What we know:
Layout: E1 2-7, H1 13-28, E2 33-38, E3 49-53, E4 67-70, H2 76-89
Parallel strand pairs: 1-2, 1-3, 3-4
Helix pairs in contact: 1-2
Amino acid sequence: MKIMTVCGLGQGTSLLLKMNVEEVINSLGIDAEVDNTDLSSVALENPDLILAGEYHLDSLKDADVPVIGISDFMDVEEIKSKLKKYFENK
């Protein structure tokens, strides 16, 4: 599984989110590759799942894969809760 974290430029908040997503998927025992990028490049990466700030959800509404909005990139519990819910319903 390929998970992409996304922000406007693909260099700051998406990298921070990537690190926290990696921590969460490791704690959940999920086998996935996590990488970060910017909004305009995410479709080229062919991800299976996208995580982005909630303020980017409108920009990602036409994505062909599920998109999870995160309100606080530093809140590992929020990320864990949303990823657990996603994988339980998958």
